[in-house]
Amino acid sequence: MRVLGLDVGSRTIGVAVTDELGVAAHGVTTLSRRGTAKDVGQVLELVRRYQAERIVVGMPYELDGSPGKRAERVRVFYDALAAAGQTVEEWDERYSTVEAEEVLIQANVSRAKRKEVIDMMAAQVILQGWVDARSGEKA
Question: Within a 10 A sphere around the Cβ of 39, how many other Cβ atoms?
């Protein structure tokens, strides 16, 4: 079962996908936001391309765990994906961008290149967290 992971921002959507076994997440692209309907269309095309059975959306909760303005905006997109017939789950994405940034810095990726790939890497961090939590449930 392949799963798509999304880091939904105001200007871009980072995208990651699991391998065929569903054990490792890999960043695949960053989409430019074009409005909810067009954004959903872009994601549905990726669902078809990767034959994903589920979409995990990073939800940007506040540090205290409450939903803030950003989470409310992401919820609109989440609901639109669900309305399009997709199986959608949310995953707490607090610190995912920070974690992705740290990985890129440790890999000695230039600041300019980090800016290009940070959303995709954040999606990978979100999806890998979801995958790891599921593997713990099976054990």
Answer: 19
Q: Which CATH number fits domain 2-138: 3.40.50.300, 3.30.420.140, 3.40.190.10, 3.40.630.30?
A: 3.30.420.140
**What pTM was estimated for this model as a whole?**
0.86
Place of tokens 């699991």: 18
Query: pLDDT tens digits for 87-137?
Result: 999 998 876 666 777 776 777 767 777 677 778 888 999 999 999 988 866
CA distance 138 to 46: 28
Strand partners, 5: 16, 56
Q: Which residue has the tokens 């549905």?
A: 44
Mean pLDDT of 79-88: 97
